[in-house]
Amino acid sequence: QVRLVESGGGAVQAGGSLRLSCVASGDPYSGYCMGWFRETPLNGREGVAAIRSDGTVRYADSVKGRFTISKDNAKNTLYLQMNSLTPADTALYYCLADLDPGAYCYSPDLELTTIDYWGQGTPVTVSS
Question: Is 122 helix (H, G, I), strand (E, B) or coil?
Fold first, then answer.
């Protein structure tokens, strides 16, 4: 069992930055495929970023160059640094864990169908 708790969401103006954090507890964390997805009523769920146990990262085209995913295994914490935010980034952001084999981290489109755990979400609102 894995428990994920996100924090760091908030309201910012367009062009601003936020850093999301996700603390993982439960089964060993360092070997997982981890990532972030977001959800809006209009667009549903969208995979945003992924990081493999070896540190390899992937991003959705919509956030590439603006968002950075990272993790601190010693602290069991996953991060998402979000820069140059736009109103289109407004969403509820979730941290996720995808256990062996971690298909999310290898999916070209960051498909969410195989993810095993996610947190309660943290809201991000970007105003123009």
Answer: strand
Look at the block and give the residue holding tokens 């995808």: 98
> What pLDDT digit, counting tens, does each position of 44-88 carry?
999 999 999 889 999 999 999 999 999 998 899 999 999 999 999
DSSP tag of 26: E
* Cβ neighbours, 10 Å, residue 87: 11
Question: Residue 32 in contact with residue 97, Cβ under 8 Å?
Answer: yes
Write b or e for each residue in 16-43: b if 16 or more Cβ atoms lie within 10 A of its Cβ, otherwise e: eebebbbbbeeeebeebbbbbbbeeeee
Backbone dihedral region for residue 48 (phi beyond 0: left; psi -120 to 50: alpha; all else: beta): alpha
